[in-house]
Structure formats: structure tokens, C-alpha cells
Write a structure and sequence with these properties.
The chain contains 6 helices and 6 strands, in the order H-E-E-H-E-E-H-H-E-E-H-H. The chain is globular.
């Protein structure tokens, strides 16, 4: 009987680890300095004062949440709790990869979380200010459609590799 319980627990553990590896392989996350978004707090971007000041907030290793196979950092426990309750509400488009690079068919370019903008109600990160300015001064809706298509293609390619 104990053997069956141990076997079941092992199976559950194996499925959990496999799911984590699969999620990470299918959905890449932009990391810089070992952390998503370069260690910036994903929830803090959504704060009205930070949006108005266009300020990115550093997260701390003391406040982390595991998501998509990575430890996301936050400035406070309250921020970490908000993220843990609904990560999809706070993760930037393309898991923090440069939106402009995707729209320009340059592939996955890592960002450090300091160059960002909201378009519509969605958060986009950029490798450099030049890309952000292109979106601000151009047709961001068309650019986002191009980036969406590129992101979808990347995810489909990764999924095929896993099969």
C-alpha cells in the first residue's frame, strides 16, 4: 500500500515538473541579469503614479513568484501577491521581449525592463527608446499585429519542437 502511495506521489511530481519544463520551453521569457524584465516589478508598471512618471520599479529577490519557469521579482509582498493571484494581468506582451523587434521580424530580443509603454491597456517592453518612439510616432496598432503574428509563430515553432 505504501508503495502505491509513493508511486502516485512520484507520478504527480513528475507531471508537475514536466508541465513546468513544457511551459518554459513553449513560452520563452525575456530575462536579463537572471530575472524576467531585468528584475523590474511587473505589477508596478500598472501603478498610476509610475505610469505618469514613466518609472520602472526594481524588484527584490526577497519578493519573488515563480511563473513560466522563472522567479519574477517584486518591490513588496503586496505586489508579489497581486501577481501571484493573476499573473496574466501583469506580464507584459511577449513575456517582456522587445515588441519592436518582433514587429520588425528581428526575433526575440531581450529587454531590461526600463523602456516600456502602454498601448491600449497592454504593457509592451522595448530594447531601446528608439523602438518605443517608433511605436509612439507610428501606427502602434499595425505594429502590434505584426508582433502578435511573429510571437504566435515563435510559440508554434517551439511547440512543434516539443512534439
Amino acid at each position: 500500500m505504501l508503495h502505491l502511495v509513493v508511486q502516485r506521489l512520484f507520478s504527480i511530481l513528475l507531471l508537475s515538473v514536466s508541465s513546468l519544463v513544457f511551459a518554459n520551453a513553449v513560452e520563452p521569457v525575456s530575462t536579463r541579469d537572471g530575472a524576467p524584465l531585468g528584475g523590474k516589478d511587473a505589477v508596478a508598471y500598472h501603478d498610476r503614479a509610475n505610469r505618469d512618471a514613466h518609472k520602472a520599479t526594481d524588484g527584490r529577490a526577497a519578493f519573488t513568484v515563480q511563473y513560466l519557469g522563472h522567479a519574477w521579482r517584486f518591490a513588496s509582498q503586496a505586489s508579489a501577491d497581486k501577481f501571484a493571484a493573476s499573473p496574466q494581468a501583469y506580464v507584459p506582451q511577449y513575456n517582456g521581449y522587445c515588441a519592436n523587434a518582433l514587429a520588425s521580424d528581428e526575433g526575440l530580443i531581450t529587454t531590461n525592463g526600463t523602456v516600456w509603454e502602454f498601448f491600449g491597456d497592454k504593457l509592451y517592453l522595448f530594447y531601446a527608446e528608439r523602438g518605443r518612439q517608433r511605436w509612439l510616432q507610428g501606427d502602434w496598432q499595425a505594429f502590434s499585429k505584426e508582433a502578435d503574428a511573429a510571437w504566435k509563430g515563435i510559440l508554434q515553432s517551439r511547440l512543434k519542437l516539443r512534439q
